[in-house]
Amino acid sequence: MSARTVVFLRHGRTEYNAAMRLQGQVDIPLDAVGHWQAEQGARSLAAAHSPTLVVASDLTRAAETAGYYGKATGMPVSLDERLRERGFGEWEGMTGEELSERWPDEYAAWRRGEEPARAGAESRADVAARMVAAVTEHADALDEKDTLVVVSHGAAITLAITAMLGLDPTGWRGISGLNNVHWSQLQRSGANAHPAWRLVAHNVGADFSLDEWSSGPDWIFQPTSA
User: Cα-atom radius of gyration of the chain, to the nearest Å?
Assistant: First the structure.
C-alpha cells in the first residue's frame, strides 16, 4: 500500500531569496515576507488538500513553512534531513554575479545545465535519489486514499518530481521551478503503470498576483508605533 497523492510544497521567502543568493544548505530562516507567504499559502493548501502526513526538510526555512501548514490543518510535522536542498559547496551564499566573476567557466557550464565542477556541490542524481527514497518511505507507510505533503526546497523538489516521473534528473530540465510557497501534486498511476506517478498540478499557489506575492503587502514594511 502507498499514498495515492503526494504534494510538494516549497518554503517561503528568505533574505537570500530576496537578494538572489544561492542558498543550498545554508540554514537561513524565513524573512517577514516569507512568514506572510507561509501563513497565506498554508490556508490555501489546507483548503485544497487534507494531509495524512506532513514531513519537512529540517532546514529552518522549510520547517517554519511546514509549521504554518501544520497549524492550519491541525497536523504534526515530522522532519527529515533527506528533504534538504541540494548542497552547493563553496557557491552557497553567493549571487550569480559573484559566481560569474569568481568561477566564470564553471558558472557558465552550470547555467547550460551541466554539473558545477569543483564547487563541491551534490550531483543532481544524488539529490534525486535521497529525495525519492524519503518520499517513497513516507508514502509507503500510508494507505491508498492518503495524502502525503512534503515541504522542501526548489531544486530538491524539481529533481524529485523529475525522477518520480521516470525522467533523467541529470539531464532533463523540462520542469520549471516552484515559486515560494507554491506546490505541485503527483498522483499515483494505476497498477503496473510506468511511470508510477503522474504530475497533475504544478506551481499552484494562493490567490495573489505574482508581484504582490514576491514582494509582500505594503503593511509588512510599515514601521510600528512605539
Answer: 18
Q: Which residues contact 44 (CB under 8 A, 6 or more apart)?
A: 205, 206, 207
Binding residues: 10-17, 61, 111-112
- Mean pLDDT for the stretch of residues 179-204: 94
List, in order, residues 6 or more apart from 139 with CB less than 8 Å away: 2, 3, 6, 148
Q: Please give the grid coordinates belonging to residue 152.
A: 522542501
Tally of CB atoms within 10 A around 220: 12
Instruction: Specify binding-site residues for substrate.
Output: 10-17, 61, 111-112
Is residue 11 among the annotated active site residues?
A: yes
**3-state DSSP of 78-97:** EECHHHCCCCCHHHCCCEHH
Choice among 35, 39, 64, 85 that is catalytic = 85
Active site residue 202: no
Separation between Cα atoms, residue 11 and residue 29, nearest integer Å: 10
pLDDT confidence bin for 221, thresholds 50/70/90? confident
pTM for the predicted model, two decimal places: 0.95
**Do the strands 183-188 and 197-204 form a parallel or antiparallel pair, or are they unpaired?**
antiparallel
Secondary-structure breakdown of the chain: helix, strand, coil percentages, each rounded to the nearest 5: 40, 15, 40
**Whether the predicted pLDDT of 118 surpasses 80:** no
